[in-house]
Amino acid sequence: MSNTEADPAELLCRDKPGDGVTVLTPRDVPLGGPRAIRVRRTLPQRRRSLIGAWCFADHYGPQDVAESGGMDVAPHPHTGLQTASWLFSGEIEHRDSIGTVAVVRPGELNLMTAGHGIAHSEVSTPDTSTLHGVQLWIALPDEHRDTGRDFRHYAPPLIRLPGATARVFLGSLAGTTSPVPAFTPLLGAELTVEPGAALTLDVDPAFEHGVLQDIGSLTVAGTALGTGELAYLAPGPDALELANHGTGPARVLLLGGTPFTEELVMWWNFVGRGHEEIAEYREAWQAQADRFGRVDGYQGTTAWLPAPALPQVRIKPRRNPA
Q1: What tens digit of pLDDT does each residue of 296-320 get?
Q2: CA–CA separation, 235 and 50 (whole Å)
Q3: How many CB atoms lie within 10 A of CB 257?
Q4: What are phi and psi of 215, to 5 degrees?
């Protein structure tokens, strides 16, 4: 998915003294160029750029495709990251410069590795009436950030827990482990908590965690979340407490990982290590260089998505609080 904002502004935080939870509040941004859809963005922001290696989180829908026109993101580039697509409803056709043609479906992970450079397009399928999901990016560590292009698909099994269900698409949780390899220690899972249920999950105390609220009414360690908000918890605890105080199911994404300590420069769809690198990536994309390859079969009105102009000031690294 393409980030149409070259320099995202600061979002809001709600610190919760005493319970170790910081709530990151999203803001609406347009995504995807001329036929932009609206998404709720929680990462990155000035006060917290990453949770583990998770460096980007957009939550969108449910959207009536008949009204919004659905998703139509023309071929666009990425470097230095992985994209993780996760849907709750609808379908999206993915095409990339490896030659992959895949359909993103609810409850199934599509993980694309950009590394040195890749291009892809995303279009909601004609059968999609409601589009609802999350787009996530994972920063690649320096030793792997120029790795080759790759694409993985995984349909995790539904795990039944007391008062909840889970699908673990990256890492390990509740006695199950995803077979999808990661370049840094990571966790990614969808959790649905039944009305009135409380759930305590064993988690890795070396991980920091984020809980992204989708539907329903849920508390994380006693702190209530609103739709699209993300609760951040620092490393230390070995258990995570979730409770549904509503009358309907509550669904969240649980993201985690060891703190990512490398400095990152993020701009548009690129992750690099300095302003000069970002400028180089942009120039290569504008020249349609071999670095990113070609996406075949995209039927949109725009052959590829041009990059915005670089800012007039140097792009600074993004850092997390100490």
Answers
A1: 999 988 899 999 999 999 999 987 8
A2: 13
A3: 27
A4: -125, 160
